[in-house]
């Protein structure tokens, strides 16, 4: 082979290598199953994000909104309050003694009408959640927080002041209901003052056991002889199979003229 032929051969080989390097690689063709798989993965990721939002992130945001709304309402009542012309006589038992004032009994609120705040020191010193009439999710429980069962007693009234709230989602006002201890304060604030109840016991019932809402809970045909509070929510967590019910007894009413009761700031 001549020297010229040798160079020609090498040049041809180099050209082939250059063309092979420049040739675009073929992309794998998309298949129907591959596309469906990618869509399902995306939907799964979106679903997980939504669940995380509903169960954790959303609860934190909604809970903060509920507390802020309750605090704003409490501040509004304090600003609008006009003290009486005469100064009330201090209790002979000392400033820490429960008030013996007769409780103010409010009219039953309309569905979705906010009329009170609830404080539970056991749930945190920033816990203050609005209470409104009705227990439907759309009108009261989801957008407001705690709902009052229509037809049950009002705060401080003889009978059973019964309320409901979510244990999960939408701020979960009753998330820690199972952590209540005997004697824990449950304080209901209205424009006229504060009603203090004391927690007594928990009970688990089926959703059909509406006897918990009777004037004397779980005691049919027994006339009201005391003042109770009944707090209901779903149980177990993330389920509608049962209801968890917390009961308490009325202790005292503190008029706004006497200032906030000590039960609001009890250490737990």
TrEMBL record:
Whether Glycoprotein counts among this entry's keywords is no
Name the InterPro entries on file.
Answer: Sortase, Sortase_Class_E, Sortase_dom-sf, Sortase_E
Indicate the transmembrane segments per the record: 30-56
Q: Where is this region: Disordered?
A: 80-104
Q: Which keywords does the record carry?
A: Hydrolase, Membrane, Transmembrane, Transmembrane helix
Report the domain of life of the source organism. Answer: Bacteria
- Recorded protein name is Class E sortase
* Lineage of the species this protein comes from: Bacteria, Bacillati, Actinomycetota, Actinomycetes, Micrococcales
């Amino acid at each position: 082979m001549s020297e010229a032929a040798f160079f020609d051969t090498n040049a041809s080989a180099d050209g082939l290598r250059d063309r092979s390097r420049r040739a675009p690689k073929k992309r794998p063709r998309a298949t129907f199953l591959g596309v469906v798989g990618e869509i399902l993965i995306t939907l799964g990721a979106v679903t997980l994000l939504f669940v995380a939002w509903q169960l954790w992130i959303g609860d934190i945001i909604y809970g903060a909104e509920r507390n802020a709304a309750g605090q704003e309402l409490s501040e509004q009542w304090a600003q609008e309050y006009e003290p009486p012309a005469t100064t009330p006589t201090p209790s002979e038992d000392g400033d820490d003694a429960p008030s013996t004032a007769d409780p103010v009994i409010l009219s039953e609120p309309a569905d979705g009408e906010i009329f009170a705040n609830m404080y539970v020191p056991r749930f945190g010193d920033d816990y203050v959640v609005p209470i409104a009439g009705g227990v439907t999710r759309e009108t009261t429980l989801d957008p407001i927080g705690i709902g009052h069962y229509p037809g049950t007693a009002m705060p401080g009234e003889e009978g059973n002041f019964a309320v409901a709230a979510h244990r999960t989602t939408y701020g979960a006002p009753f998330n820690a209901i199972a952590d209540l201890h005997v004697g824990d304060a449950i304080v209901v604030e209205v424009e006229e003052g504060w009603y203090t109840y004391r927690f007594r016991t928990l009970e688990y019932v089926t959703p059909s056991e509406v006897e918990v809402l009777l004037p004397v809970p779980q005691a049919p045909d027994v006339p009201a002889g005391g003042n109770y509070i009944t707090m209901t929510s779903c149980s177990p967590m993330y389920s509608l199979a049962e209801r968890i019910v917390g009961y308490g007894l009325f202790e005292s009413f503190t008029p706004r003229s006497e200032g906030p009761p000590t039960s609001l700031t009890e250490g737990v």
